[in-house]
Amino acid sequence: MALSFGVTSTGGYGVLQSLSETETAEIADARGADGLITDQQAYSKTAEATAEGLFNSDTLGGAGTSLTIGSVTGLITNQSITETNTDYKRVSVTVQKKDSATQVALS
Amino acid sequence: MTSTIISSIISGLTSALTPNPVYATFDQTKPFGAVQTVVSATSEPFSFDAAGTPIAWQTGVNATVVTHQHTDKSGSVRNADATKCFNYFKALTSLSGITLQAVTSVSQSEVSQVDENYGAVTVSCTLIHQ
Q1: CA distance A7 to chain B (A)
Q2: What value, to the nearest 5°, has the Cα angle with vertex A12 and ends A8 and A13?
Q3: Over the stretch A38-70, which tens digit does the pLDDT of each residue have?
Q4: Which residues of B touch A91 (CB under 8 A)?
Q5: Strand partners, B22
Q6: Is the peptide bond before B45 cis (omega within 30 degrees of 0)?
Q7: Helix, strand, or coil here: A75?
Q8: How far apart are CA B66 and CA B93, in angstroms?
Q9: pTM for this predicted structure
Q10: Strand partners, A81
């Protein structure tokens, strides 16, 4: 059994601490007269990936720009930098890709 | 790593506590009535790279000021050196041998007993470093 330890993806978002990828689907429900769902139809899928790292002066694109995190290439929907007086400066970036949509980044 | 830190702290505290000695272990041969400070440290990883390898450490340093209860009944000698240790840790901004990034805590303990006749006050600090 091959287990994977650590964050295996690489990228320019600092010293990677964690990476997560999430897929969600939008689903239409059809209900019968008794309120029970009789049919479900998935009609759209969203892939989202979030990377968290220790900030190491890597250049960050900023919200609205395109970035690949893990297996998701999408637009940055959230980019946050956190500084506290008891920890290293941290950066968190989230990208999102919906279906096979053509994405246009902020210019 | 801790030995490097202990050596650097001993060097710094030796200056701060002159002429009282600072050691890495309790000196049983010191004469009756002597005051001495013993420095110890423990390190653990604080931050890791993507593969899980430590890249920064958190080290707890203890400086224990020890005096004989008979010759230092009031504890004034002990307290004076403990205060100097406290101020030394509080003002610490760099240490040779490591890249010191922060001193996140400095604290001082109550008086405790060492052996039968010695009283001790421990001043502790937490260092974040690479």
Answers
A1: 5
A2: 85
A3: 999 999 999 999 999 999 888 888 999 999 999
A4: none
A5: B37
A6: no
A7: strand
A8: 26
A9: 0.83
A10: A91
